[in-house]
């Protein structure tokens, strides 16, 4: 499955994520997950499965542009996909959204930073800007 990224700030984090996955030492921030809005493409690919493992993820930089290139490939037991619903589920551990909001700052920041956000507040404002909003997405981890 192809995942394309285009936020300049995250580019070195993605490279570090692939290095870390390969067992290489890294310096600086690491990105080893991304969340995408759930839509028809994912229904077609995954059907009713809510959790898939051992996948091949092809990570690209600006895949549909002349300057696009492939960062690399994440495969094996470290790759997984989980369907998310921020109204009731937000992580592999089936964290309730209200509990997620009430969890410790360290836990929230860890999950948020793994996705490229600077803080839990920034993460929550992006995915569920208003109380009662529901976000359905797909969590890719490698």
Brief description of this entry?
30% of the residues lie in helices and 25% in strands.
Instruction: Please give the count of helices.
Output: 5
Contiguous uncertain segments of 5+ residues: 86-102
**Proportion of strand residues:** 15-25%
Based on DSSP secondary structure assignment, what is the total number of beta strands? 7
Radius of gyration: 15 Å
SSE order, as H and E? Answer: EHEHEEEEHHHE
Q: What value does the average pLDDT take? A: 75
Strand order of the largest sheet: 2-7-6-3
- Biggest β-sheet: count, sense, barrel? 4 strands, antiparallel
Structural class: alpha+beta
The percent range for helix content is 25-40%
Terminal CA distance reads 12 Å
Seen as an oligomer or otherwise, the chain set is single chain
Shape: globular
Q: Which key features would you list for this structure?
A:
globular, alpha+beta, 30% helix, 142 residues, 4-stranded antiparallel β-sheet, 3-stranded mixed β-sheet
């Amino acid at each position: 499955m192809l995942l394309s990224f285009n936020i300049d700030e995250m580019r070195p984090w993605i490279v570090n994520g692939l290095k870390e996955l390969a067992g290489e030492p890294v310096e600086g921030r690491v990105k080893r997950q991304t969340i995408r809005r759930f839509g028809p493409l994912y229904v077609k690919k995954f059907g009713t499965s809510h959790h898939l493992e051992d996948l091949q993820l092809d990570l690209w930089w600006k895949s549909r542009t002349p300057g696009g290139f492939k960062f690399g490939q994440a495969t094996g037991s470290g790759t997984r996909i989980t369907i998310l619903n921020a109204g009731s589920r937000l992580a592999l551990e089936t964290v309730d959204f209200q509990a997620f909001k009430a969890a410790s700052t360290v836990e929230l920041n860890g999950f948020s930073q793994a996705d490229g956000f600077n803080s839990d507040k920034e993460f929550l404002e992006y995915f569920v800007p208003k109380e009662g909003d529901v976000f359905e997405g797909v969590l890719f981890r490698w």
